[in-house]
Amino acid sequence: xxGDIFDERFPDNFYRGVIINLNRATLKGKVRxxxxxxxxxxxxxxxxxxxxxxxxxxxxxxLRVGDHxxxxxxxxxxxxxxxxxxxx
Length: 88
Fold this sequence. Notes:
This protein is mostly beta strands. The chain is 0% helix and 49% strand. It has a single domain, classed as CATH 2.40.50.140. It has strands at residues 9-10, 14-23, 28-33, 38-42, 47-48, 68-76, 79-87. It is globular, with a radius of gyration of 12 Å.
């Protein structure tokens, strides 16, 4: 993705961003990249690095609105989506 919003990487080759929305009832949220793009995520289609395995939303308890994170993206049927989150 050279030349676009994802040029600057977080340590361990993750993009950098902030969690701007986190709905524990629907298991959905959004990340704002450092360039301002808002990218959705949904459990169980996102992995949280360092979270225990198992359960409906493993790692959701590690996340809060306003947290600075590293993240990775992939394509879903609805477009670009966060696939991995690495809390600081």
